[in-house]
């Protein structure tokens, strides 16, 4: 039987997409020493690139080429999610088995999302790897020192923001009559609610005298604020379904810092 350790190594260091997309349900839970951060293995075409390409403007989504490019970005985020969860399982071997299994269930969803996006971009005429991919989220993995910090960054920041992104882009694809991509984003959205819920439940179990929001803030790396846990719309309903309470949701919604003003401007068009 494959061990959790070997499976995560395959997901993280494998150099083929097949290795990263293989779902493995029966795993043995061996004990091992914590792994250091190391860049993921990738097929040559999908290696991190310093070349910056721009995310397409929403006014260009009637063009297949631009839709495909947007989906290419989303696909890289899914691949990064698989790798970041695998890296977390290797970095923090002492988490309990229930939590490890929750992370594995999330990985399986991310694998499914990646498969759906690849299928869709192929239908729109491109291959995964036709455009350069960035290591934007990966870089932050180097900042987390504890499993709680990882989960705050991943589930309550990047995945929480993805509720807003998925809803927002879902509507744009709907507006241009792309039912197929709309459905993929709908699946991603529903699964993301479950992912945020897993992180929220775990972190709630760790809060001591603080409220969840201040505990969450205390876990974030210095260069990341709760602003990063939001998109260009604020999907309150998704957050409620993820089990976040009124108080937490309001604090998220009302949180403001420079990031809102400087980095979100480009999305207004
Ligand atoms: Fe995903
Ligand atoms: Fe996710």
Kindly report the average pLDDT value. 94
Separation of termini? 52 Å
Report the order of strands and helices: HHHHHHHHHH
Per DSSP, what share of the residues sits in E-state strands of 2 or more residues? Answer: under 5%
What would the principal axes of the Cα set say about the shape?
Answer: globular
Q: Assembly state here?
A: single chain
The helix fraction, in percent, is: 55-70%
Number of domains: 1
Could you say which structural class the secondary elements and strand pairing correspond to? mainly alpha
Rg, rounded, reads 18 Å
Number of helices: 10
Task: Describe the overall structure.
The protein has ten helices and no strands. Helix 5 packs antiparallel against helix 6 (179-206). With 269 residues, the protein is mostly helical. It has helices spanning 4-13, 17-21, 64-91, 97-123, 147-175, 179-206, 212-219, 236-241, 246-254, 258-263. It is globular and about 50 Å long. It has one domain (4-17, 62-264). Residues 78, 81, 110, 113, 188 line the site of one fe (ii) ion.
């Amino acid at each position: 039987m494959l061990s959790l350790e070997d499976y995560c190594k395959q997901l993280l260091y494998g150099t083929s997409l097949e290795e990263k997309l293989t779902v493995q349900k029966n795993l043995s839970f061996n004990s091992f020493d914590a792994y250091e951060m190391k860049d993921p293995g990738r097929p040559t075409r999908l290696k991190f690139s310093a070349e910056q390409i721009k995310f397409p403007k929403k006014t260009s989504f009637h063009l297949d080429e631009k839709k495909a490019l947007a989906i290419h970005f989303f696909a890289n985020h899914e691949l990064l999610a698989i790798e970041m969860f695998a890296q977390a399982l290797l970095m923090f071997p002492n988490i309990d088995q229930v939590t490890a299994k929750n992370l594995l269930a999330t990985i399986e969803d991310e694998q499914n999302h990646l498969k759906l996006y690849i299928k869709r971009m192929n239908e729109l005429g491109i291959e995964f790897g036709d455009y350069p991919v960035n290591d934007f989220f990966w870089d932050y993995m180097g900042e987390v020192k504890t499993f709680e910090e990882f989960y705050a960054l991943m589930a309550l920041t990047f995945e929480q923001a993805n509720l807003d992104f998925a809803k927002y882009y879902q509507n744009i694809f709907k507006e241009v009559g792309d039912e197929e991509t709309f459905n993929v984003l709908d699946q991603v959205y529903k699964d993301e609610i479950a992912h945020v819920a897993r992180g929220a439940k775990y972190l709630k179990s760790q809060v001591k005298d603080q409220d969840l929001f201040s505990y969450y803030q205390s876990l974030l790396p210095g260069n990341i604020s709760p602003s990063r846990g939001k998109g260009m719309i604020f999907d309150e309903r998704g957050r409620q379904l993820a089990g976040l309470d009124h108080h937490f949701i309001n604090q998220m919604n009302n949180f403001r810092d420079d990031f809102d003003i400087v980095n979100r401007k480009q999305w207004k068009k």
